[in-house]
Design a protein that fits this description.
The complex is a heterodimer of chains A (about 110) and B (about 110). Helices cover about 0% and strands about 55% of the residues of chain A. Chain A is built from no helices and 11 strands. In chain A, a hairpin with a 6-residue loop joins strand 4 and strand 5. The termini of chain A are far apart. The chains are: A mainly beta (about 110), B mainly beta (about 110). At the A-B interface, strand 4, strand 5 and strand 9 of A face strand 4, strand 5 and strand 9 of B.
Chain lengths: ~110, ~110
Protein backbone atom coordinates (compact mmCIF):
# COMPACT_ATOMS: atom_id res chain seq x y z
CA UNK A 1 0.00 0.00 0.00
CA UNK A 2 1.29 3.44 -0.90
CA UNK A 3 1.88 5.89 1.93
CA UNK A 4 -0.11 8.61 0.22
CA UNK A 5 -2.94 7.67 -2.10
CA UNK A 6 -4.97 9.79 -4.45
CA UNK A 7 -7.55 9.07 -7.11
CA UNK A 8 -5.60 9.70 -10.33
CA UNK A 9 -8.68 10.95 -12.17
CA UNK A 10 -8.95 12.47 -14.63
CA UNK A 11 -11.67 14.74 -13.38
CA UNK A 12 -13.27 16.56 -16.30
CA UNK A 13 -15.55 19.37 -15.16
CA UNK A 14 -17.21 22.37 -16.78
CA UNK A 15 -16.24 25.89 -15.91
CA UNK A 16 -17.97 27.06 -12.77
CA UNK A 17 -18.28 23.60 -11.27
CA UNK A 18 -17.26 22.64 -7.76
CA UNK A 19 -14.85 19.74 -7.54
CA UNK A 20 -13.35 17.91 -4.58
CA UNK A 21 -10.29 15.71 -4.27
CA UNK A 22 -9.41 13.40 -1.43
CA UNK A 23 -6.11 12.00 -0.33
CA UNK A 24 -5.44 9.32 2.27
CA UNK A 25 -2.21 8.72 4.14
CA UNK A 26 -1.08 5.66 6.05
CA UNK A 27 1.28 7.04 8.69
CA UNK A 28 -0.70 8.30 11.67
CA UNK A 29 2.38 10.16 12.96
CA UNK A 30 2.37 12.49 9.95
CA UNK A 31 2.78 16.06 11.07
CA UNK A 32 2.07 18.48 8.25
CA UNK A 33 0.10 18.41 5.06
CA UNK A 34 0.07 20.29 1.80
CA UNK A 35 -1.52 20.53 -1.60
CA UNK A 36 0.76 21.29 -4.54
CA UNK A 37 -0.25 22.07 -8.08
CA UNK A 38 1.70 20.79 -11.06
CA UNK A 39 1.13 21.98 -14.61
CA UNK A 40 2.06 19.69 -17.46
CA UNK A 41 5.84 19.15 -17.67
CA UNK A 42 6.51 21.81 -15.04
CA UNK A 43 7.62 21.82 -11.44
CA UNK A 44 5.18 21.41 -8.54
CA UNK A 45 4.25 24.62 -6.76
CA UNK A 46 2.68 25.03 -3.36
CA UNK A 47 -1.06 25.63 -3.54
CA UNK A 48 -1.77 25.65 0.17
CA UNK A 49 -0.85 24.15 3.47
CA UNK A 50 -3.56 22.17 5.24
CA UNK A 51 -4.36 22.90 8.87
CA UNK A 52 -6.34 20.82 11.33
CA UNK A 53 -9.03 23.46 11.60
CA UNK A 54 -9.39 23.64 7.84
CA UNK A 55 -8.38 26.64 5.81
CA UNK A 56 -9.54 28.60 2.83
CA UNK A 57 -7.74 30.60 0.19
CA UNK A 58 -10.14 32.24 -2.21
CA UNK A 59 -11.92 29.51 -4.15
CA UNK A 60 -9.85 26.76 -2.52
CA UNK A 61 -10.66 25.04 0.76
CA UNK A 62 -8.52 22.39 2.40
CA UNK A 63 -9.56 20.07 5.20
CA UNK A 64 -7.68 17.60 7.36
CA UNK A 65 -9.23 14.66 9.16
CA UNK A 66 -6.57 13.12 11.38
CA UNK A 67 -8.86 10.43 12.79
CA UNK A 68 -9.58 9.06 9.33
CA UNK A 69 -6.18 10.04 7.93
CA UNK A 70 -7.32 11.94 4.93
CA UNK A 71 -7.08 15.43 3.55
CA UNK A 72 -9.30 17.08 1.00
CA UNK A 73 -9.22 19.94 -1.45
CA UNK A 74 -12.35 21.70 -2.64
CA UNK A 75 -12.28 24.01 -5.63
CA UNK A 76 -15.32 26.23 -6.14
CA UNK A 77 -16.28 28.05 -9.34
CA UNK A 78 -13.65 26.21 -11.40
CA UNK A 79 -11.69 28.20 -13.96
CA UNK A 80 -10.02 26.97 -17.11
CA UNK A 81 -6.72 27.93 -15.47
CA UNK A 82 -7.35 25.43 -12.67
CA UNK A 83 -6.58 22.60 -15.11
CA UNK A 84 -3.54 20.86 -13.63
CA UNK A 85 -2.48 17.90 -11.55
CA UNK A 86 -2.96 18.31 -7.80
CA UNK A 87 -0.46 16.59 -5.55
CA UNK A 88 -1.14 15.67 -1.95
CA UNK A 89 1.98 15.90 0.25
CA UNK A 90 2.41 14.54 3.75
CA UNK A 91 5.37 15.27 6.00
CA UNK A 92 6.80 13.50 9.04
CA UNK A 93 10.19 14.52 10.46
CA UNK A 94 11.39 16.05 7.19
CA UNK A 95 10.29 12.97 5.26
CA UNK A 96 8.03 14.37 2.55
CA UNK A 97 5.75 11.88 0.83
CA UNK A 98 3.92 12.69 -2.37
CA UNK A 99 0.78 11.23 -3.81
CA UNK A 100 0.84 10.40 -7.50
CA UNK A 101 -1.53 13.27 -8.18
CA UNK A 102 -5.09 13.87 -9.34
CA UNK A 103 -5.53 15.31 -12.79
CA UNK A 104 -8.17 17.99 -13.30
CA UNK A 105 -9.35 19.35 -16.63
CA UNK A 106 -11.78 22.26 -16.62
CA UNK A 107 -13.63 22.66 -19.91
CA UNK A 108 -15.47 25.67 -21.35
CA UNK B 1 14.17 36.45 -7.24
CA UNK B 2 14.05 33.44 -4.93
CA UNK B 3 14.58 30.32 -6.97
CA UNK B 4 15.99 26.85 -7.41
CA UNK B 5 18.00 26.47 -10.59
CA UNK B 6 18.85 23.14 -12.10
CA UNK B 7 20.77 22.35 -15.27
CA UNK B 8 20.55 21.01 -17.83
CA UNK B 9 16.82 21.08 -18.52
CA UNK B 10 17.03 18.31 -21.10
CA UNK B 11 19.67 15.64 -21.50
CA UNK B 12 20.01 12.63 -23.78
CA UNK B 13 22.89 10.33 -23.00
CA UNK B 14 24.03 6.75 -23.47
CA UNK B 15 24.34 3.93 -20.98
CA UNK B 16 27.44 4.19 -18.81
CA UNK B 17 28.41 7.77 -19.56
CA UNK B 18 28.78 9.66 -16.29
CA UNK B 19 26.70 12.77 -15.91
CA UNK B 20 25.99 15.48 -13.35
CA UNK B 21 22.84 17.53 -12.93
CA UNK B 22 23.52 20.73 -11.04
CA UNK B 23 21.17 22.37 -8.55
CA UNK B 24 21.52 25.71 -6.86
CA UNK B 25 19.24 27.68 -4.54
CA UNK B 26 19.49 31.30 -3.44
CA UNK B 27 17.15 31.17 -0.43
CA UNK B 28 19.71 30.05 2.16
CA UNK B 29 17.70 26.90 2.85
CA UNK B 30 19.44 24.21 4.84
CA UNK B 31 17.40 21.33 3.44
CA UNK B 32 17.69 20.23 -0.17
CA UNK B 33 16.58 17.11 -1.97
CA UNK B 34 16.36 15.32 -5.30
CA UNK B 35 13.29 13.58 -6.68
CA UNK B 36 12.46 11.61 -9.73
CA UNK B 37 8.98 11.59 -11.20
CA UNK B 38 7.65 8.70 -13.25
CA UNK B 39 4.12 8.22 -14.61
CA UNK B 40 1.77 6.72 -12.05
CA UNK B 41 4.39 6.75 -9.31
CA UNK B 42 4.50 10.38 -8.30
CA UNK B 43 7.62 12.01 -6.93
CA UNK B 44 10.05 9.69 -5.21
CA UNK B 45 12.93 11.01 -3.19
CA UNK B 46 16.41 9.99 -4.28
CA UNK B 47 18.63 11.76 -1.74
CA UNK B 48 18.29 14.61 0.67
CA UNK B 49 20.59 16.86 2.64
CA UNK B 50 19.80 18.48 5.98
CA UNK B 51 22.85 20.76 5.79
CA UNK B 52 26.35 21.14 4.40
CA UNK B 53 28.28 17.86 4.37
CA UNK B 54 25.18 15.93 5.53
CA UNK B 55 23.43 13.71 2.99
CA UNK B 56 21.05 10.78 3.36
CA UNK B 57 19.38 8.24 1.13
CA UNK B 58 15.78 8.67 0.16
CA UNK B 59 13.53 5.96 -1.23
CA UNK B 60 15.33 5.28 -4.51
CA UNK B 61 19.06 6.06 -4.09
CA UNK B 62 20.50 3.17 -6.12
CA UNK B 63 22.61 4.39 -9.02
CA UNK B 64 22.87 7.98 -7.77
CA UNK B 65 25.31 10.03 -5.76
CA UNK B 66 25.10 13.51 -4.31
CA UNK B 67 27.35 15.96 -2.54
CA UNK B 68 26.75 19.04 -0.42
CA UNK B 69 29.96 20.99 -0.12
CA UNK B 70 28.23 24.35 0.00
CA UNK B 71 24.82 25.36 1.27
CA UNK B 72 23.53 26.59 -2.06
CA UNK B 73 24.58 23.66 -4.29
CA UNK B 74 23.41 20.06 -4.35
CA UNK B 75 24.49 18.24 -7.53
CA UNK B 76 23.11 14.85 -8.55
CA UNK B 77 25.61 12.45 -10.07
CA UNK B 78 24.88 9.39 -12.16
CA UNK B 79 28.18 7.48 -12.34
CA UNK B 80 26.96 4.91 -14.86
CA UNK B 81 23.49 5.79 -16.15
CA UNK B 82 21.16 3.03 -17.23
CA UNK B 83 17.90 3.17 -19.23
CA UNK B 84 15.82 2.68 -16.08
CA UNK B 85 17.07 6.08 -14.92
CA UNK B 86 15.23 7.75 -17.77
CA UNK B 87 12.93 10.08 -15.89
CA UNK B 88 12.01 13.64 -14.96
CA UNK B 89 14.19 14.90 -12.12
CA UNK B 90 13.46 17.72 -9.71
CA UNK B 91 15.70 19.41 -7.21
CA UNK B 92 14.04 21.14 -4.28
CA UNK B 93 14.91 23.18 -1.24
CA UNK B 94 12.72 23.48 1.82
CA UNK B 95 11.95 26.12 4.41
CA UNK B 96 11.87 25.46 8.14
CA UNK B 97 8.08 25.19 7.80
CA UNK B 98 8.44 22.41 5.23
CA UNK B 99 7.41 24.47 2.21
CA UNK B 100 9.30 23.11 -0.77
CA UNK B 101 10.51 25.07 -3.76
CA UNK B 102 11.31 23.09 -6.86
CA UNK B 103 13.60 23.63 -9.78
CA UNK B 104 12.13 23.57 -13.28
CA UNK B 105 13.08 19.94 -13.81
CA UNK B 106 15.57 17.96 -15.86
CA UNK B 107 14.23 15.52 -18.41
CA UNK B 108 16.79 12.75 -18.80
CA UNK B 109 16.80 10.03 -21.44
CA UNK B 110 19.34 7.23 -21.20
CA UNK B 111 19.68 5.23 -24.40
Amino acid sequence: RKEVEQDPGPFNVPEGATVAFNCTYSNSASQSFFWYRQDCRKEPKLLMSVYSSGNEDGRFTAQLNRASQYISLLIRDSKLSDSATYLCVVNRNNDMRFGAGTRLTVKP
Amino acid sequence: EAQVTQNPRYLITVTGKKLTVTCSQNMNHEYMSWYRQDPGLGLRQIYYSMNVEVTDKGDVPEGYKVSRKEKRNFPLILESPSPNQTSLYFCASKTAKNIQYFGAGTRLSVL
